[in-house]
Amino acid sequence: PARSTVQYPVQSNCERLTDSRENERVRYSVVIPVYNEQEVLDTTYDRVKAVMDTLGEPYELVFVNDGSKDGSREILERLSAASQSVKVLNFSRNFGHQVAISAGMDYASGDAVIVIDADLQDPPELILKMVEAWRQGNDVVYAKRTVRQGETLFKRWTAALFYRFLRLLTDVDIPVDTGDFRLIDRKVCDVMKGLKEKSRFVRGLVSWVGFRQTAVEYVRDRRFAGETKYPLKRMLRLSTDAITSFSEKPLKMAMYVGAMLSLTSIVALVCALCEPLFTGRGVSGLFALGAVVVFVNSILLIAVGILGQYVARIHDEARGRPLYILDSQPGLEEESRHGGV
Ligand code: UDP
Ligand code: MG
Questions:
Q1: By Cβ atoms counted within 10 A, which residue in 37, 70, 83, 219 is the most buried?
Q2: Distance 133 CA to ligand 1 centre (A)
Q3: Mutation probe of ligand 1 site: the residue of 94, 117, 157 with most atoms within 8 A of C-beta
Q4: pLDDT level of residue 335 (50, 70, 90 thresholds)
């Protein structure tokens, strides 16, 4: 006959303590930035919760209320009162999507941190795929959209153009058609917490820190309800932040243009002065004068370009990014992951 035995493991107090803490330790943190999303929050919570429950490990939902002016705050506080896994950060005012994500990362305690929009444009079900890729050893799993539904042609085009333009300008490998919907490992999150620059373009920073990155593809749904919180003005600000944080090429542009104009004007001037030798006519004064004017201006442009180089260096220092980031250090003691901070 089968005997069922109950085992009472003999444990020291200390072991039991760490054990219970181990059980409580959050494995997954889901960071959800929220700005005036009262129509969707309950559904978002239900869908994200359903997905996270299937993973069968402790998780937390970190809602960052980015100064919502509608009923979002009350809904979040109700959710948080009803469930231990819901944590809410209420901002004192609207600080912007990128700041909200950063705050969520600061407070998230899981081994894997997932960032997802509140409006259900990012399907929570994709988190399962991301977690799978994470378990296979990837440190960053970003969601790449193949199709965008329910967004205006204007938004799709400007977004597509923007990602390609940014790629052209920067040396950082920022994937195209990828929003902030992604999973990052604890070690990546720790590095992100150390990056204190103010004008943040989070997805660029995540690319910049390196580690093993991979993509999962998905179809971006239409908004579940409400309307976009990214009007043209904010889109422009985000793209300016992205370009100025990840490229110095605009600063060098003046120099290139100046150098080119300078060369052309010198050639033009020489041509103008030599013209009489071949044609027997007098020097074309207007042409020569034009060449001189262009030459003087090109010197100014070069000067601006040189200034730009110094500004770029100041900018680099001011951002205060670490000089390098270690993934691991075999043979050395585990002390600090960041180098040169
Ligand atoms: N969001 C935010 N602060 C803002 C603007 C937006 O926290 O100032 C949140 C918003 O609630 C949503 C996410 O960021 O969860 C993405 O915003 P939205 O859906 O409006 O952008 P879109 O998908 O249209 O690019
Ligand atoms: Mg959206």
A1: 37
A2: 26
A3: 117
A4: low
d(CA 41, CA 321): 35
Is residue 66 over pLDDT 90? yes
Residues 275, 281 contacting (CB under 8 angstroms):
yes
> Which ligand 1 atom lies nearest to the CA of residue 94?
8
**Ligand 1 atom with least separation from CA of 118:** 15
Q: What are phi and psi of 227, to 5 degrees?
A: -130, 170
Give the total residue count for the chain.
Answer: 341
Q: What is the ipTM of this complex?
A: 0.95
CA dihedral for 209, 311, 236, 256, sign (positive or negative)? negative
The CB of 103 under 6 Å from ligand 1? The reply is: no
Instruction: Pick the residue whose CA is nearest to atom 16 on ligand 1.
Output: 117
Pick from 97, 118, 94: nearest CA to 226? 118
228: its two tokens? 């976009």
Q: Counting Cβ atoms within 10 Å, is residue 211 exposed (0-12), middle (13-18) or buried (19+)?
A: middle
